[in-house]
Amino acid sequence: MSQYFLPFNSSNDLDTSVLMVRDIAGDYRPADAAEVLQAAQHVLKQQLRGLPIMDSPKVVRDYLKMKLSMLEHEVFGVLMLDSQLRLIECVELFRGTVSQTSVYPREVLKESLARNASALVIFHNHPSTNPEPSRADEQLTTNLKNVLQLVDIRIIDHLIVAGNNVTSFAERGLI
Hints:
Elements: E1 3-5, E2 20-22, E3 28-30, H1 33-48, H2 57-68, E4 75-81, E5 87-95, H3 105-114, E6 119-125, H4 135-149, E7 154-162, E8 165-168
Parallel strand pairs: 6-7
Antiparallel strand pairs: 1-2, 2-3, 4-5, 4-6, 7-8
Helix pairs in contact: 1-2, 3-4
């Protein structure tokens, strides 16, 4: 695992132009773009852990944008929440193609029960960068809501990440 730090220049001022990485051998080198994004995802994930999701919608959106906005394929995942709506875990459940992914309610239920989740925020991305929910997205949300209700797990929101835009089903009254 790499360690990150921002170097200081000769006048002891923080040099914000480069992020350095220390590799396993202990040598430092400039971080590449993927490592910078990985570090940012790690920071946002740490900010989310244990927080009530409803108290931090901006952090949730920023984390999901960072995680999904640049992907060229669809991903479906779930933020598993406890009874106080604090994050238990972010789980990527399904990976698809450029325009679709198959989601199996049975697997969502199984993973939710395994983590003792009381509520979920489901999410996926649209590589097309069109933030509008499709009819299939709406139907999936309804199906998942019906299945999960049977075991007292509620869906708080369904977020679609499309480039820099995030669409919330809850904000649109679709949940």
